[in-house]
Amino acid sequence: MDHREHTSAVEAIAAPVLPDYLVDTYAWAYLKPHSLRLLDQHFVVNAILWGNYRRLVRWACEEFSAGDRLLQAASVYGNLSGRLADRVGPRGSLDVIDIAPLQVAHCGRKLSGRSNVTVRVADAALPPGSGYDGICCFFLLHEIPDLHKRLVVDGLLRAVRPGGVVVFVDYHRPVRWHPLRPVMTAIFRWLEPYAEGLLRTRIEDLATQSGDVEWSAETRFGALYQKVVARRLR
Ligand SMILES: C[S@@+](CC[C@H](N)C(=O)[O-])C[C@H]1O[C@@H](n2cnc3c(N)ncnc32)[C@H](O)[C@@H]1O
């Protein structure tokens, strides 16, 4: 079934066009119905993250609180959205966006029955809402071209309220002695052409107005992963 069949007419009019980087590089992973069946399984996402999936989800979720109004900047295989919705609880809410209608339909099915969640098609560079208490951007930046990385970081910083946080969890360049460093280098060269642009740049440096933001950064697992928390000051 074509992924467009999942969207309503209104969504189809409002939906952004699928970007070339997604169609050319990641169609196999995100734009085919059989990829959903194959990849959206705990053992697969956990294997891709070297057994760290739950720890990375926990690391992201701990930045948010009960009652928060949250945005998730792109849909993710696994249970991140459910964990974020649990974290904010019934007094809070979670809006999930994704640029691919197929992913939106899939995420909507996974989260059906949760009254505090909405899922819709949008580009993380132009989030449809604003004034969020928190935004979670989980393993998106390494999959998008450098210019789009900047647009997404700026777009998310605009969508959070003063005092709110944008939390980026993503890859980072591992320490020199890391046993997975050569493996990750090969994987990135083979499958993830935009990852190198993230490894050589601080996320803070992607923001146009980084001075209006308080930045904190942490790495884990031999610096293979990073969490960057951007608190908007005004
Ligand atoms: C979050 S990233 C990578 C997540 C991770 N590899 C996983 O476990 O799923 C994958 C998602 O980002 C979406 N995406 C790519 N570019 C986007 C953009 N500019 N705005 C919103 N979603 C985007 C893709 O459609 C895909 O569903």
Structure, briefly:
The protein is an alpha/beta fold.
Description of the structure:
- The protein has 234 residues and is of the alpha/beta class.
- The protein has a single domain, classed as Rossmann fold (3-Layer(aba) Sandwich).
- It has ten helices and seven strands.
- The structure holds S-adenosylmethionine.
- The site of S-adenosylmethionine has 22 residues, from helix 2 and strand 2.
- S-adenosylmethionine (SAM) binds next to helix 2 and strand 2.
Layout of strands and helices, then pairs:
Layout: H1 9-14, H2 20-30, H3 33-39, H4 42-48, H5 53-61, E1 69-72, H6 80-88, E2 93-98, H7 101-110, E3 117-121, E4 132-138, H8 146-159, E5 160-171, H9 181-191, H10 195-199, E6 213-220, E7 225-232
Parallel strand pairs: 1-2, 1-4, 2-3, 4-5
Antiparallel strand pairs: 5-7, 6-7
- Count of helices? 10
Shape: globular
For the biggest sheet, the summary is: 7 strands, mixed
Assess the beta-strand content as a share of residues. Answer: 15-25%
Low-confidence segments:
1-13
**From the 3D coordinates, which CATH architecture would you assign?**
3-Layer(aba) Sandwich
CATH class: Alpha Beta
Average pLDDT, to the nearest integer? 93
Strand neighbour order, sheet with most strands: 3-2-1-4-5-7-6
Percentage of helical residues? 25-40%
In CATH, the homologous superfamily goes by the name Vaccinia Virus protein VP39
Give the tally of structural domains.
1
Order of helices and strands: HHHHHEHEHEEHEHHEE
What fold name goes in the CATH topology slot?
Rossmann fold
The tally of beta strands, per DSSP, is 7
Hetero ligands: S-adenosylmethionine
Radius of gyration: 17 Å
